[in-house]
Automatic annotation (TrEMBL):
Full-protein interval shown: 19 to 266 of 642
Provenance organism: Flavivirga rizhaonensis
Name of the gene: nagB
Name listed for the protein in its UniProt record: Glucosamine-6-phosphate deaminase
Annotated Glucosamine/galactosamine-6-phosphate isomerase domain residues: 9-236
């Protein structure tokens, strides 16, 4: 794992956006699609703002981009205020020229018996495109990546998962109380994340410093799924000073 520390999250987000823009342009020159794995939550907000700026001010086109989001709450209406479909539209998709049919976010409206097939097809679509070129991740306070909570296996597939209590508590503000917060979600499995050609995990603030230390300097363990990235040959943790403050 590489770690890169920036003065603040704005500078860090711009650097990540630059890497993504460069990759999109290389793929454009090769007449290839660019397959991006995307995250929601607070950590990538500055990244998406910078990508929108690059589109509007510097002519970056997303016409060759195919995106796969990591996760969605289940159940979830796509136009609900807390849906990750809505998050992605409002922060990125509606402001760039990505084709709607190229934007994939797990479906929060499936009936239970269709989830397994749907998850298999989600992975098959990624495979048919040659895999994820660049995966963006945030990290939960418990070390989750996507919604692969503590205990998720390294070869875990895309699936319906139960959210950890602390994940639900972290989300409960958005849902106006724990009782309204979903108990389950659909998440890309650890295996597909590990198969991405490039992985960038972003974390900001003192509150993430302990889990960043455990993920990068601690042992590789299923209790901290982000620690699996120690085995990835092209993963970088992009941090602000506060998130990096406990690293030796
Ligand atoms: C979101 C996701 C989660 C978040 C993580 C950190 O799609 O997969 O793993 O990245 O919970 O969330 P924030 O960035 O809000 O601290």
């Amino acid at each position: 794992i590489g770690t890169v520390v920036f003065e603040n999250s704005t500078a860090a987000s711009k650097a990540v956006a630059k890497e993504i823009a460069d990759l999109i342009r290389v793929k454009q020159a090769q007449k290839q699609p660019c397959i991006l794995g995307l995250a929601t939550g607070s950590s990538p907000k500055g990244l998406y703002a910078e990508l929108v700026r690059l589109h509007k001010e510097e002519g970056l086109s997303f016409k060759n981009v195919v995106s796969f989001n990591l996760d969605e709450y289940y159940p979830m209406e796509p136009d609900s205020v807390n849906s990750y479909v809505r998050f992605m539209k409002e922060l990125l998709f509606n402001h760039v020229d990505i084709l709607p049919e190229n934007c994939h976010v797990p479906d929060g409206l499936l009936s239970k018996e269709n989830i397994a097939d749907y998850c298999e097809q989600y992975e098959a679509k990624i495979e048919a495109l040659g895999g994820i070129d660049l995966q963006i991740l945030g990290i939960g306070g418990n070390g989750h990546i996507g919604f692969n909570e503590s205990g998720s296996l390294k070869n875990s597939k895309t699936r319906l998962v139960a959210l950890d209590h602390i994940t639900r508590v972290a989300a409960s503000g958005d849902f106006l109380g724990l009782e309204n917060t979903p108990r389950t979600a659909i998440t890309l499995g650890v295996k597909k994340i590990m198969e991405a050609k490039r992985v960038i995990l972003m974390a900001w603030g003192e509150g993430k410093s302990n889990i960043i230390k455990a993920s990068t300097e601690g042992e590789e363990t299923s209790s901290v799924p982000a620690s699996y990235l120690q085995e990835h040959n092209n993963a970088t943790f992009v941090l602000d000073k506060e998130a990096a403050s406990k690293l030796t």
